[in-house]
Design goal:
The complex is a heterodimer of chains A (387) and B (160). With 387 residues, chain A is mainly β. Chain A has four helices and 29 strands. Chain A has a domain of 117 residues: Thrombin, subunit H. The longest helix of chain A is centred in the N-terminal third of the chain and has 22 residues. Chain B folds into two domains: 71 residues, no CATH class; 70 residues, Winged helix-like DNA-binding domain superfamily/Winged helix DNA-binding domain (Arc Repressor Mutant, subunit A, Orthogonal Bundle), CATH 1.10.10.10. Classes of the chains: A mainly beta (387), B mainly alpha (160). Chains A and B meet through helix 1, helix 2 and strand 7 of A and helix 1, helix 2, helix 5, helix 6 and helix 8 of B. Chain B: GO terms for molecular function: DNA binding; sigma factor activity.
Chain lengths: 387, 160
């Protein structure tokens, strides 16, 4: 056995991998099992009815061919090499496309399609690139200890949108910090060591704290903010509680839940549609399904779900420019749906087997990057440019 | 039945947590995975217990949960390489610290192959069975993982 093998073996055998055995874990496991048993019992009572319903639904799905997309008129696709070879985030504006690369941020001039500015080196811990009210922000995570969540903090940097010069660095306390642009507002979010998440609204001009919002639950593993409804005074959030994920509207003043929906299977790509609809995708063994939820009531819209039966998950759902984009890398397909009705509008080819696929866009343009190539699609078909 | 399960799980919990921690590299994720695996075990406790290998069942479940967790692809990812790598904790030898950092850069399946081979001392055939793949795949995954570790460690040394 080589020294290297010995070293690896010694590292894996190190006592630092040991964790304190908290018996609360067993309580959690028992509670989870009780919930499943209750569901099974209820399921048994309703079994016959459910089986009949499922048979009818299955028959309907098999018989009803998926509505054909409107024949697309020509859509121009421009491909550019990704500066630096890797794109982790894309931000599209009227005249520029910003790319968070592996070690730099780039500004590509949309007219000349050339790199117009390059930032100073950023670390691989730079995770989010967002633009709010013309100001570009990037968050960069620092990890200072082995208990990463507990000891992590981040900096939020303001960048000059033309030159990509770094401005102020604003510390964001807490772990797992991320930054999001939501409905024209800038938010950071982070978690304390007890699993309590805090959303912090910041002034997009200088990063000053404008207010905070705390979900009423312990969202241990993750919490995200998807939308702000200023008129209703609510925020749409997603929270991974220990007993399952919920999507909910929270009162912006009190933080209390106005309406909530448990998502048993966990969402992939909770994304905002239009006309008060939110969409999310659940990934099953044999297919994915897109669900439609009314934000005001947090109820699934009857018959509003899109049955997207595909044998090869995972697919990813993104909301861009009022459209829902279902990315199916294994099929090499990109499908565009109407953000209000879920109607399928068009489908396009995309690179097969692309991994993580950052996207950006507006009503007339959809941009995605994979495999070292940025593809800018623009046109006037039924999906792009509002159809 | 639950009392019997609780007695067993209470004793095996530290080992299971450590195993999950090795596979995930994240203590919080390890706790989540172990709790989910124990929930599933409890649901099938009478069957699992009858086969006299509850621990094997839980470990296989933990492994599957770690490798098949697609949700993480769009959830948080703690980065492997902080901008300025922190100094190793005082009590930890620097080379071991570097190896831990290198392990954190591996994808779940490659990391799992190394954990099963170097920590669990499993043969290639056993690893292939646990991961549901061929022995050839295990060999190639192990080879790729070791190459990555070596490259990462060399890079770290050069940086210093």
């Amino acid at each position: 056995m080589s020294d290297f093998d010995e070293r690896l073996r010694a590292t894996l055998a190190d006592e630092r991998w040991a964790l304190p055995a908290d018996l609360a874990l067993l309580d959690g496991a028992e509670a989870g099992a009780r919930r499943v048993r209750r569901r099974r019992a209820a399921g048994a009572v309703l079994g016959t009815l459910a089986a009949a319903t499922a048979a009818v639904l299955a028959f309907t799905l098999v018989r009803a061919p998926e509505r054909e997309p409107r024949p697309p008129r020509p859509v121009t696709s421009i491909t550019l090499p990704v500066p630096g070879g890797v794109a982790r985030e894309l931000v599209l504006t009227r005249d520029s496309l910003y790319v968070l690369g592996k070690s730099h941020i780039y500004r590509i001039d949309r007219a000349t399609r050339r790199v117009a500015a390059t930032s100073r080196k950023v670390s691989v811990a730079a995770l989010d690139l967002v633009m709010v009210e013309g100001t570009l922000w990037v968050s960069e995570r620092q990890i200072t200890g082995k208990r990463a969540r507990k000891d992590t903090f981040s900096f939020l940097h303001r960048l000059d949108a033309r030159t990509l010069q770094f401005g102020e660095a604003i510390p964001v306390p807490g772990g797992m910090a991320r930054t999001t642009a939501v409905a024209g507002t800038l938010w950071s979010r982070s978690v304390d060591r007890f699993g309590r998440w805090t959303f912090t609204q910041r002034d997009p001009r200088d990063g000053r704290v404008l207010g905070t919002l705390r979900p009423p639950w312990n969202c241990g593993s993750n919490a995200e903010i998807a939308d702000i409804d200023r008129k209703a005074g609510t925020a749409l959030i997603s929270c991974w509680k220990p007993d399952g994920q919920v999507i909910a509207t929270l009162d912006l003043t009190t933080g209390g839940a106005r309406a909530q929906l448990g998502v048993q299977d966990g969402t992939h790509g909770l994304t905002l549609g239009t006309k008060g609809m939110v969409w999310y995708l659940t990934d099953h063994l044999t297919h994915v399904r897109i669900h439609q939820v009314d934000v005001a009531t947090m109820r699934q819209r009857p018959g509003g779900d899109l049955a997207a039966v595909r044998p090869a998950p995972p697919d990813l759902l993104t909301g861009v420019g009022g459209r829902l984009w279902l990315r199916s890398p294994k099929q090499g397909a990109l499908t565009c749906y109407d953000g209000a009705t879920g109607r399928r509008l068009a489908s396009y080819a995309m690179p097969r087997n692309a991994g993580s696929l950052p996207v950006a866009g507006d009503e007339g343009t959809f941009v995605h990057a994979s495999g070292g190539t940025i593809t800018i699609m623009s046109g006037t078909d039924g999906c792009l440019a509002g159809g | 039945m639950d009392a019997e399960f609780r007695d067993w799980a209470g004793v095996r919990l530290p080992a299971l947590l450590r195993y999950a921690h090795l596979l995930t590299g994240d203590p919080h994720r390890a706790e989540d995975v172990v709790q989910t695996a124990l929930t599933r075990t409890l649901l099938g406790w009478s069957r699992v217990h009858r086969k006299d290998d509850p621990e094997g069942y839980v470990r296989r479940t933990i492994l599957r949960l770690v490798i098949n967790d697609r949700r993480r692809s769009w959830r948080e990812h703690l980065t492997a390489s902080p901008p300025e790598p922190p100094p190793p904790p005082l009590a930890e030898p620097e080379e071991r610290w570097a190896m831990r950092a290198a392990l954190a850069t591996l994808p779940p399946r490659q990391r799992a192959v190394l954990v099963l081979r170097y920590y669990e001392d499993m043969s290639e055939a056993q690893i292939a069975e646990a991961l549901g793949c061929s022995q050839g795949t295990v060999k190639s995954q192990a080879s790729k993982a070791l190459a990555k570790l070596r490259a990462h460690l060399n890079e770290t040394e050069v940086t210093k």
